[in-house]
Amino acid sequence: MPLRRSLLRTLLPAATLLLAAPAIAQAQQQQGGEIALYSSRHYDTDRELYEAFTRETGIRVRLIEGDADQLIQRIRTEGANSPADVLITVDAARLARAKEAGILQPIRSQVLESRVPANLRDPEGHWFGVSKRARVVMYDRQAGPPAGLTRVEDLADPRFRGQICVRSASHPYNTSLAGSVLAANGPEATEAWARGVVANMARPPQGGDRDQFRAIPAGQCKLAISNTYYLGGMATSPRAEDRAVAERIGVLFLNQGPGDRGQHVNISGAGVVRTSRNPEGARRFIEYLTSPRAQEIFAVGNMEYPVVADAPVHPALAAFGNFREDQLNAGQYAANAAEALRIMQRAGWR
Ligand code: FE
């Protein structure tokens, strides 16, 4: 998957790119009422995008923001009376939970099936990834890339004793990552791996992803496990201290060797709510999110990678380099998350 793009693309006027998306042009001819969007994302860029969608389609967007699990619970509680048409959230495990809770409906869309790679959407069409993030190893650029660390499995190698900083096992980012290890290697190898990672920790798990790589220049750990967008956000921060931290940090994409499965990625995704009164408008909205211009704005709002192959990548992300991603379906590692957590906790990963 090529990640480096010509900067020219980003310089093209927005209107050109919007008109280039056939779904949008088609949608312009129809009138569509309103959709209610339940979103756990809260970026100004997302709002701009929703306004552009309204201008293109005539469909108004009512935005209801909240924590992902609260939004899922709210839709369940509202039942048949729920005004929700679209749910947007981060992490495949949460999207899988929404599907499991029965609050999403399967949709068929040629646009989505052709633009969103198969590994980043529910095979039954309950949810579709609209941007993605890689969960990588970060290291001190002053020390250079760690020798002997090329795979996520290597994090258990005794040569990295006392070096790793990572957040708690129960966070969805870690259960999704461990769910992908479980899918690749089975339960016994995953438990041995988790024990090795715990033995290699520089300190007990604490804080969020940013705190892990911030601890590198602070001298508390040599290696950090984190999502790429946190570092992308720091690299483009208005605060000089943040940019100084980001400059110290190198990104190591994992499992890139020939024949290896590729780097684990997680997603932000969207699905049509089962009780939606405007499923047509909801589908068009999610399709809109996959247009090249929308992909650029939506992904960059959180410094994520677009899911659509021809959408531009922010230069701060492109600077990390290219990588090949694990083709395991996001729904599969999400389904493994509960078992992965039990394994990690048995291994002593708090
Ligand atoms: Fe996050």
CATH homologous superfamily caption of the largest domain: Periplasmic binding protein-like II
Heteromolecules bound: fe (iii) ion
Low-confidence stretches: 1-21, 24-30
Overall helicity? 40-55%
N-end to C-end Cα span? 35 Å
Count of separate DSSP helical elements: 17
Question: Domains counted in the coordinates: how many?
Answer: 2
Main CATH class of the largest domain: Alpha Beta
Q: If you average the pLDDT, what whole number results? A: 92
- Determine Rg (CA atoms, Å): 20 Å
Approximately how much beta-strand content do the residues carry?
15-25%
**Backbone shape:** globular
CATH architecture of the largest domain: 3-Layer(aba) Sandwich
Would you tell me the structural class of the helices and strands?
A: alpha/beta
Along the chain, the helix and strand elements come as HHHEHEHEHEHEEHHHEHHEEHHEHHH
Largest sheet: 10 strands, mixed
